[in-house]
Amino acid sequence: MQIAPPGFDRVFSALADHTRRDIVRRAISAEEGVLELASHYPISFAAVQKHVAVLERAGVITKQRIGRRRIVRTNREALLVARRLLDQYEGLWRARIDRMNELIAETAGAIDTAETKESKR
Amino acid sequence: MTVTAVRKDPQRLTLTLEAEFDASVERVWQLWADPRQLERWWGPPTYPATFTKHDLAPGGRIEYHMTGPAGDQPHGYWDVLEVDPPRRIVLRGGCAYADGTLTTEIPISTIRVGIEELAQGRTRMSIENVFPSTDAMEQILAMGTEEGQRQAVSQADAILAEETIQL
What we know:
The structure holds two protein chains of two kinds. In chain A, 66% of the residues lie in helices and 10% in strands.
C-alpha cells in the first residue's frame, strides 16, 4: 500500500504499544524467555505471549533456542529497517513532489502557449 | 529540487515535508482537489493510481487503487476530516481490500496538507504525516545513532538508494 511503504505499518503498530516497547527494551540483552518476561507485567502470561507474537510477526524480536530454553531477542536489524522505512517514506513524498512540480510546469506551459497564440492573433 | 525542508519530529509525532512551487495557491490546491491531477502524482509511473471516488468535503470519502506491473491492485481510502479551500486538508487514510472493505489491523495514518502564499507568486505546501505514537517514532529515530550501528546504517542507505530509484 502506498500510504506508507510495505512493512512500515506493521513495525509501527508493533511498537505503538507500551508493553511491547518494554518487551523490546528488555529483550535487547536476550536473557529471558516469555515466562520470565511475563513476570515483569501485571497482565496474564497469555497476554504477554500475545504481545510477543505481534512483535515476532513484525520481525522486531526473534525466539532463540539456548539449551532447553527459548530466549526472546530483539532484532536490532529489524529496528534499523524501521528507520530505513521512515527514510523511504520521505523518499516517497519527495518523488510525489517532483511529479507535482512536473505537472504544474506542464500546465503552465500549456497556458503560456495559449497566451502566445492569443497575442499572435 | 523544490523540497525546502524535511522535519522528523518525535515530539509532535510527525514527518513533515515542505515544498515550494512556482505557481499560485489556487493552482497548487488543484493538485489535491482535482482527482485527474491527483492521479498524475500520487503513484509512481510503475504504480499509477486511479481515484474512483473523490468527495473532498468534510465527512467525505476518497477511494483509490493503484495498478502494479504484475496487475496487482492495492486499494486505499481517505476519510476527509477537514477541508478549507484552498489552504488546508486533513485526511485519515488506510488500506482497503479489493472489495472496498477496510483492513482493520493496520493503524490509520493522518496527513495534514497546508498551502500558503509566498512572495512573487510562489506557494509553499507542507505535508505533515502523523504517526501512531510518539514513543514508536522516537524509538525509530534513535536507531542508527549508536556506536557500532553505523556500518549497518550505511548498508541500509545503499539499499534505500536502490529502492528510491525504483520509486
